[in-house]
Amino acid sequence: MADDGALTPFPGFKRGRIDDEIVNPELYASEEIHDVYTRLRREDPLHWTQPEGFRPFWSVTKQADILEIERQHPIFINSARTYLSPIAGEEWIKSMTGDTHLFRTLVDLDDPIHMKLRALTQGWFMPPNLRKLEERIAGLAKEHVDHMQSLGSECDFVKEVALWYPLRVINSILGIPRSDEKFIMKMTQEIFGPGDPDVAAESSNVSEDGASMTSDQGVDLLQTAQELFAYFGAITADRRANPKDDLASIIANGKIDGAPIGEREAMSYYIIVATAGHDTTSSTASGGLLQLMRQPDQLMKLKNDLSLLPNAVEEMIRWVTPVKHFMRTATKDYDLRGKTIRKGDGLALFYWSGNRDEEVFDQPFEFRVDRDVKKQVAFGHGVHLCLGMHLARMEIRALFAELLPRLKSIELAGEPKNTRANFVSGLKSLPVRFEFT
What we know:
Blueprint (H helix, E strand, L loop, with lengths): L17 H4 L3 H6 L2 H11 L2 E4 L7 E4 L2 H9 L4 E2 L9 H11 L15 H9 L5 H4 L3 H17 L3 E3 H6 L1 H11 L6 H12 L4 H10 L10 H25 L5 H6 L2 E2 L2 E2 L2 H32 L1 H9 L4 H12 L4 E6 L3 E3 L2 E3 L4 E5 H4 L34 H18 E6 L4 E2 L8 E3 L1 E6 L1
Parallel strand pairs: 2-10
Antiparallel strand pairs: 1-2, 3-7, 4-14, 5-6, 7-10, 8-9, 11-14, 12-13
C-alpha cells in the first residue's frame, strides 16, 4: 500500500490538513491553493493524499512527473476515475450509470475507443480547417467588443463578453442556433459549477422555466444530463435526416468500425464540445485581461506590439490553467521519485501546479506577455492532449486583437470573483471601467 506521506498542518488554513486543502474549492476561489502546491513541489511533490470524504490518491505537482505519467497512457488510464469527486458523489453516479462516469466523453475513455472517437472530429480542430473559420471568429470577436463599447464605460467583462463570445464560436461550429444559447450556458454552469452558490444562482437566472437548483446537487446533475441528452438526441435525429456542413453532422453520422457510435458516446461528444469547448476559453480570456490590468506595464507592452499576442495568449493559458486537474489510475505498479505507485492507485495531475513549477519557469508567479511558454501543460499531454487547443488559442487571439487597439484605458471597477470549484474554474465576475478610442 502507498506510504502515509503525512505533512504537518498549514497554519491559518480552514481545516489545517494539507490533504483536505488540496481538494478544498474555497482555496481555488481565492487562489490560496498555490500555497499548497508550492509547498508540495518543495517538500513532497508526489504526495499520498487522504482527504476526508474522498478516496485517497497521489498528488502529482511537478511538471516533469505530470508529463511522464501522461506519456505512459497504457499504464495510467482515464476510465477508472476522471476527476476528484467525494466518495458519496462517486457512489451516486455508479448507482445511476453502473460505472464511475455520468458521461462517456473523450476524457473519460481510454484507447482504442478513445482514439477512434477522437479521430471522428480531429480534422475539424486542426489548423488547416480552422483557418477557414478565421473570418467568422474575427467577426464574432468584433461583435462582442462592439457590445462592450455599447455599454458605456463599465461592465462585467465575464458576464457581458467572456462567457458569450466563445459560446457563440463553438455553437456556430456545432450548428446550434443562437436561440438555444441560454440553454447551453445554463447546462455548462450546472455541470462545472454546481458547488458555487453564485454560479447556481446565475444558472437559474438564465433558465427558461426559472427553476433553481435543489439542495441535492446529484439529482440536479442527473436532470442536467437528461436535458442535454434529450436536446442533443433531437440534434442527432435532425442531422441524420438532414446533414449539414457542421460539427454536429459529423458526430451524428459518425461510425466506428463500420457501426454508428453509441447513443451515450454521441451525446457525450456533443456535451464535451458544447460545454468544455467554451467554458475554459472564457476563463482564460477573462483571467488574462485581469492580469493585464493588474500589470499595466504588460498591458502597454502588448498594446504597443501586437506581434507578441500569440505568446501573450500562451502566457494567459499558463496563468489561468482553467482545468486544474485530471485523474489517472495505475494499471500496474510503477516507481516514481523513489516511491511505488501501486496498481489501482489514483493520481491527480495538478496542471495549475505544473504551470508554476520553479524548475520549468523563471519567476513563475510573474505574468509576462513575452515569456517563452512552450512548456505549459494546461492542455495536457500525450494521447489526451486537448482536442480544441488550436481553436481556443485562435479565439483568444482574435478577441484581444480586436479589443486592445480600441482600448484607450481599462481598470478594475470592483472586486474580481472566482468560481468555487477544484476541477474546472476561473473568474465568474470581472467588473471593469474602460474608455474606447
